[in-house]
Write a structure and sequence with these properties.
about 160 residues, 4 helices, alpha+beta, 6 strands
Length: about 160
């Protein structure tokens, strides 16, 4: 997959900053981010936030705002899937070929690659931004930086 035009990334970042400044709540911000990334980043075919359910035992990720096809995975235990791995480890997970990763929870036959970035509040994982692509190895270093920036914006907003 070709690298992104840096000008394009800068444009999307400026739009993200605008969405962040206009959103009154973290919920509005997450909705705006999913809409923007799904619309502007053509290889981002599914964009969604999963948030940790407060007090759930066992810990559970619950689907929040998303753009893309419906998914059967609206609740994901922390010990399951690539989403669970990212939330449990607190580290970004990039999978270039989901069919070669046994952790992958199949949502769509069209999905070829995935990136999951944890959202932190006061140093603790509270959720994540999950993006699927219909292209193999879709997520470059620039994509990772962009998606991590989105997660940081949400984390800062949630910190109050």
């Amino acid at each position: 997959m070709a690298t992104l035009n840096p000008y394009r990334i800068d444009e999307v970042r400026k739009e993200l900053d605008r969405v962040n400044s206009e959103a009154r709540t973290a919920d509005q911000l997450m909705k705006g981010i999913t809409l923007l990334l799904n619309k502007q980043m053509l290889k981002y075919n599914w964009v969604g936030f999963y948030m940790l359910e407060p007090g759930a035992d066992p810990p559970m990720l619950v689907l929040g705002h998303y753009q893309g096809a419906m998914t059967p995975h609206t609740r994901i235990p922390l010990n399951e899937g690539i989403c669970g791995a990212a939330a449990s480890s607190g580290k970004t997970v990039v999978v270039d070929d989901v069919n070669s990763d046994p952790r992958y929870l199949a949502c769509s036959l069209e999905t070829k690659s995935e990136i999951v970035v944890p959202v932190f509040v006061h140093g603790k994982v509270v959720g994540e931004l999950d993006i699927d692509s219909h292209f193999s190895a879709a997520f470059t270093v620039q994509d990772r930086a962009l998606v991590e920036y989105c997660a940081q914006l949400v984390g800062k907003r949630l910190e109050g």
